[in-house]
Amino acid sequence: MIQSLRGMNDILSEEYERFEYFLSVASTIAKRYGFHYIETPLLEETALFKRSVGESSDIVGKEMYQFIDKGENDVCLRPEGTAGVVRAFVQHKLDKKGGIHRFYYHGPMFRYERPQKGRLREFHQFGVESFGVDSVYEDALMIMMVADILKALGIGYRLKLNSLGDQHCMPEYRKKLVTFIESCDDAICGDCERRKLINPIRVLDCKNEQCQNLYTNAPKLLDNLCDGCQNDFDTLKTILDQHNIAYEIDTNLVRGLDYYSKTAFEFVSDNIGSQSAIAGGGRYDRLIEFLDGKPTPAVGFALGIERLMELIIMPEPVREGYYLGAMDVAALIPILLCAEKIRRSDKAVVEYEPRSLKAHLKGADRINARYCAVIGENELTQNSIWVKDLVEKTESLIPLNDFFV
RNA sequence: GUGGGUGUAGCUCAGUCGGUUAGAGCACUAGAUUGUGGUUCUGGGGGUCGUGGGUUCGAGACCCAUCACCCACCCCA
């Protein structure tokens, strides 16, 4: 038997209903916030991710589905969504056009990791990117939008917040941090030794207990922000307070993608195991110029759909449409004609096997139909169809000529 | 990539020390006054015991490999 590839799942039936429900809720909310859908290719030039996500990140370093195509292009399946949207933004010269551009997207992402709960090799994200807005109000908008989506789905969360500084304060902070790390050099773990050289900020969220103990006295990002970053961060907190969105400051929250600056946030759930991040995002004002665009401020977030699936509280299912069945082979012909008429405006599911009335009622029940419509010997002689409303428990015999004329 | 656990019917799982025809519940299907659903009762169908090797007179059970899933590390959404 041929099986799907490791970490790549089919989504079907009830699971897909959840998936679809999520998409409709999230898309509706994104549109209400003034965002427009954008679809970008799953396959992109490898250089796009090397330059945006960053070669120091694990995603680019070891998790990409990368290969040479028949035209000898170095390509890979997208490991995340932002890079492609930024590429499209620049390619279509929206950076030069100026103004505000707000996009939302959803689709599969690919990372070659060891699968576990909440971590697949092909997984789905819903994300949002906003270009051209410098104001920290847009950062707040992102967080409010995620909060709105999670609330609409009945999902509880904790929000972690941090500021990573900008090109003015970050480099200086980085120097301070490296000096600090060197002062406790011999005691840090091998990973941190590596991080110190490639991306020193990442030592902060090292999970090694000994490292964490050492870093309690490390200089904090938040104590080293320049005035501009500090003001924005304070404003952001005020806005969130005003909107009753609870948050916790996490000075060790360092997003794993290299392009973030200033606002960084992460929504986590305590109910889905160790892969607990359900949404993450932040500002990335420098990324557009890294990808050859005109410098443009930008913020965004992405949300992992699979991690949300089991948390979604679905609305009560309602009975809808028709179940049609024959009690006699000859009745199948008018049944099919009726189904065709119903489908012009409603759902109709036909059972082809002639069965007892009881079996048909059960069948209608099983697919959660509102109406059970049956033609048997009696109806055939009277040229009519028997219809029972399974909610109102009323039934009627309708002449075929009158049925949905 | 590292460490640990699990794999028996469509689903959830029993299966004793290795022993003869592999079980239950749910689901499916058919009946229970011959045309009235969601309850009950009775019957029925459905299994290469994840896959491939090995040990043994005999393997669902023991051993090895492999694949998949789960948990933790790591990473991230």
Summarize this, please?
This protein is α+β, with helices and mostly antiparallel strands. The chain is 36% helix and 22% strand.
Shape: elongated
CATH homology group of the largest domain = Bira Bifunctional Protein, Domain 2
CATH architecture of the largest domain: 2-Layer Sandwich
- Percent of residues in helices comes to 25-40%
**Quaternary assembly:** single chain
Instruction: Please list the strands of the largest sheet in the order they lie side by side.
Output: 1-5-6-11-10-9-7-8
Over the alpha carbons, how many angstroms does the gyration radius reach?
28 Å
| Parts with pLDDT < 50 across at least 5 consecutive residues | none
Largest sheet: 8 strands, mixed
How many individual domains? 2
Number of DSSP E strands: 16
Coarse structural class: alpha+beta
The averaged pLDDT comes out at 90
**CATH topology-level name of the largest domain:** BirA Bifunctional Protein, domain 2
Cα distance spanning the termini: 49 Å
Highest CATH level, the class of the largest domain: Alpha Beta
Can you characterise this structure?
The chain has two domains: 13-169 and 225-309, 2-Layer Sandwich (BirA Bifunctional Protein, domain 2); 322-399, Rossmann fold, CATH 3.40.50. The protein is elongated and about 95 Å long. The chain has helices at 13-32, 46-54, 58-62, 82-91, 94-97, 136-152, 170-183, 190-198, 209-215, 227-242, 287-290, 305-309, 332-342, 357-366, 377-382; strands at 36-37, 43-45, 66-68, 74-77, 101-110, 122-131, 158-163, 248-249, 261-268, 277-283, 298-304, 322-326, 348-351, 371-375, 384-389, 394-399. It has an eight-stranded mixed sheet, sandwiched between helices. The chain has a five-stranded mixed sheet with strand order 13-12-14-15-16, sandwiched between helices. Strands 2-4-3 form a three-stranded antiparallel sheet. With 405 residues, the chain is α+β, with helices and mostly antiparallel strands. It is built from 15 helices and 16 strands. The mean pLDDT is 90. Helix 1 (13-32) packs antiparallel against helix 6 (136-152) and helix 6 runs parallel beside helix 10. It binds one RNA strand of 77 nucleotides through residues 1, 3, 6, 57-59, 62-63, 80, 109, 111, 113-119, 123-127, 191, 207, 255-257, 266-267, 273-275, 277-281, 301-308, 327, 356-366, 372, 374, 376-378, 386, 388, 390, 393, 395.
